[in-house]
Amino acid sequence: xxxxxxxxxxxxxxxxxxxxxxxxxxxxxxxxxxxxxxxxxxxxxxxxxxxxxxxxxxxxxxxxxxxxxxxxxxxxxxxxxxxxxxxxxxxxxxxxxxxxxxxxxxxxxxxxxxxxxxxxxxxxxxxxxxxxxxxxxxxxxxxxxxxxxxxxxxxxxxxxxxxxxxxxxxxxxxxxxxxxxxxxxxxxxxxxxxxxxxxxxxxxxxxxxxxxxxxxxxxxxxxxxxxxxxxxxxxxxxxxxxxxxxxxxxxxxxxxxxxxxxxxxxxxxxxxxxxxxxxxxxxxxxxxxxxxxxxxxxxxxxxxxxxxxxxxxxxxxxxxxxxxxxxxxxxx
Length: 332
Hints:
The longest helix has 47 residues, at 265-311. This protein is of the alpha+beta class. α1 (2-31) packs antiparallel against α4. The chain is 28% helix and 38% strand. The protein contains four helices and 13 strands.
């Protein structure tokens, strides 16, 4: 029985030991992915801020500008693209909606972001756009890959429609979570006018006829939890201007928007809590289960060897003083 038990334990030990690297290097890349129906809303604020009153074409100081960013998974579109792409795809329909201090719309820019559900690499397909303009993204946007590395990444800027490096600047602790700090600077760049303007009668076409152009610069900062690749906090030092043309009269330029945009406190707390829970799930696949199976395999192997060694011990000697049967005499 000991021999059979040791063989069973040996088989289980081999199974668990083999399962450890399989879980980490085969299971994790296939099981860890962004769900196609993911939905997220983020509220950011610039307090104070400067923005352009299109009614008077004058920049004015205000107490607060609010930016509501929404990302909604489009399951139907992702399923369509998956058939041709041959891999798991996520389609995010995003909207950046800017509100003035009175709640009125300042601007709104929709976009569609299509990417690989496992690696977060962009997937190029019909419908990829920013504010109705077709784009071909390179690099990441909104989210870093699982198991983010301490290095620079290529990051897509939706305003300028360009991809530039976002630089790793170091490791920090943000509200009890170890994070990687990244920073990207977009220098002054000529960009498109928004398709939707806050004042009726002013359109990108009418502005273009005046010769006036829109320019933009920003310093973008993210604090990213490296296991999940999810930002727990983000902010931008953001500036936009209109330059030249007859729309500005005798002025060379006027500020459209300027402010230090930061995540609102309640959204910081909820994001940190969500990322902590997701971090545990990712660690389950990358660390807890692989190391657990490896440890279990070693323990089972040890137990198997112990049982095998005990089964091979020589038999106990005969009890001392035990009388041996006497030979019987043989009759002639």
